[in-house]
Design a protein that fits this description.
By secondary structure, the chain is of the alpha+beta class. The protein has 2 domains: 2-136; 146-197. Helices cover 32% and strands 19% of the residues. It contains 6 helices and 8 strands. A hairpin with a 5-residue loop joins strand 4 and strand 5 (162-168). The mean pLDDT is 92.
Length: 200
């Protein structure tokens, strides 16, 4: 429990402690996973387990924790046939988020986007561009994203392939994969593994 509480904003600790203890929730920390921030799983023996990436900043960690606790409670209330991010999960997630959507827990630059996101939460905070960018500002490491680069810049993605930015579309960036010459669309908040040639 202490390991979890040390990773969230101080003003949320009592609330989270009560959620975890009252529902007897088991949580494990995991090393960085590229495809997800957290996970909820039901084991073959029926035990329910939440895993969270240990590298998340305190604000993303808290939101992810509440996200996964919502899965736990949705499964507990509605059983195995409940849709992962269906209306039952959304209603629980919104209810659990409400007490912490305040300036004592989150800074203003996150709060305004989190309040909007909570109206109709998606499967991942990364699907909300504004919220994702606001949260990423508090990461401990300096990270570059597709949105940080200009047209003509060449970058390496986490899949090891190299791409050149062709143009910015309304919501995405059109890029060409240099070895195959195939075109791909990237979300602005996709992390870049390495910048190979940056244009002003």
């Amino acid at each position: 429990m202490k390991e979890i509480l040390n990773r969230i904003p101080t003003e949320s600790k009592d609330y989270v402690t009560n959620l975890i203890k009252s529902n007897n929730i088991k949580i494990l920390l995991k090393k960085k996973r590229k495809t997800k921030h957290g996970d909820f799983a039901v084991k073959k023996n029926g035990n329910m387990l939440i895993t969270l990436n240990s590298d998340l900043n305190s604000y993303r960690f808290l939101i992810t924790l509440i996200h996964e606790i919502s899965h736990f409670l949705a499964y507990k209330s509605f059983g195995s046939f409940v849709k992962p991010h269906g209306i039952e999960w959304k209603n629980i997630f919104k209810k659990l988020l409400l007490p912490i959507i305040n300036p004592k827990v989150f800074p203003e630059d996150i709060l305004k986007y989190l309040a909007s996101y909570a109206i109709n939460p998606k499967a991942s905070t990364d699907s909300d561009l504004n919220l994702s960018i606001a949260l990423n500002k508090y990461n401990s490491e300096t990270t570059k994203y597709v949105l940080d680069l200009s047209t003509g810049s060449v970058f390496q993605a986490h899949n090891g392939k190299n791409y050149k930015i062709i143009k910015k579309l309304r919501k995405r960036y059109e890029c060409i994969e240099l070895s195959t010459k195939k075109l791909y669309l990237f979300s602005p908040n996709v992390k870049i593994s390495q910048i190979l040639n940056e244009y002003p």
